[in-house]
Amino acid sequence: MVIGGTGVLGGALAEGLAAAGAGVAIVGRNTERGEARVQVIRSAGGSGHFVSADAMDRTSLQVAHETVARVLGEPTILINAAGGNDPKVTVTAERAFETLALEDWRANFDLNLVGGVLLPCQEFGPGMCARGRGSIINIASVSAHLPLSRVVAYSASKAAVLSLSAFLAREWAPKRVRVNTITPGFFPAEQNRKLLFNDDGSPTARTNSILGHTPMGRFGTSEELIGACVFLASEKASSFVTGSDLRVDGGFLSQTI
User: Fold this and answer.
1) Cα angle at 54 between 95 and 229, to 5 degrees?
2) pTM recorded for the entire structure
3) What DSSP state is assigned to residue 204?
4) Alpha helices of 142-252 — where are they, by DSSP H?
5) CA-based diameter of the chain, in Å?
């Protein structure tokens, strides 16, 4: 199950898992993107299916679960890749922190924490525990470790993702269900494109600051997350790995001065 597999990063992870031999269910709200990603997987000889669902709706997830179990069998791998930043809770020169509306804060936490991790884990985790097998991979962010300027609600909600993931890793380890996170660095995608590039495609001042703080001096590509995901998903490769946070950030979090 790749929830959020209709997005750039989630879709790349879905393709990578399929290439490694997994039967992949792409779960998301955008049917056009989901079906297009499935066609890419199938064209490469993989097994892919799209299931329409809203990760922030418990009933929708239950229906998706039933569909996936019928088509592919009960999932043993869950990738929680849904999430994003809401511009309404981004601090700007015109929008001060103290003016951010509570309902917008809640919406961002619903997206990244509730729909991004909590509800999917509540839906799929118990079955994995009952069967004594499972790998859950949640997508965090470098801003969960070092809160970035401007994206205050996104940073806080992703920090909560790390905390909830660590809790579940401890609780479900005796039942042989592993829970880990991947912390991506900066990967240009729809949610951050306007922060990183001007309308003419030139880099913004924020991009220059990010690259100056990244020892590798560049952005990541979505394909560079696949290895980390396949490693954590594989029982053979990472059977004793749980509660970990695997950073794929070009050295961003190691940089000081």
Assistant:
1) 90
2) 0.94
3) P
4) 142-145, 152-172, 193-196, 205-213, 226-233, 235-238
5) 53
- Architecture per CATH, domain 2-190+222-254, reads as 3-Layer(aba) Sandwich (3.40)
> So what's the pLDDT on residue 203?
79
Residue pair 26/240 in contact by the 8 Å Cβ criterion = no
d(CA 51, CA 37): 12
Q: Where are the domains of the chain?
A: 2-190+222-254
Give burial (CB, 10 Å; 0-12/13-18/19+) of 205: exposed
Orientation angle between helical segments 152-172 and 119-131, nearest 10 degrees? 20
Could you give the residue numbers annotated as active site? 154
Query: What DSSP state is assigned to residue 112?
Result: I
Look at strands 2-3 and 77-80 and give their pairing.
parallel
Place of tokens 């790749």: 2
Does the pLDDT at position 160 exceed 70? yes
Amino acid at 205: A
Beta bridge partners of 203: 197
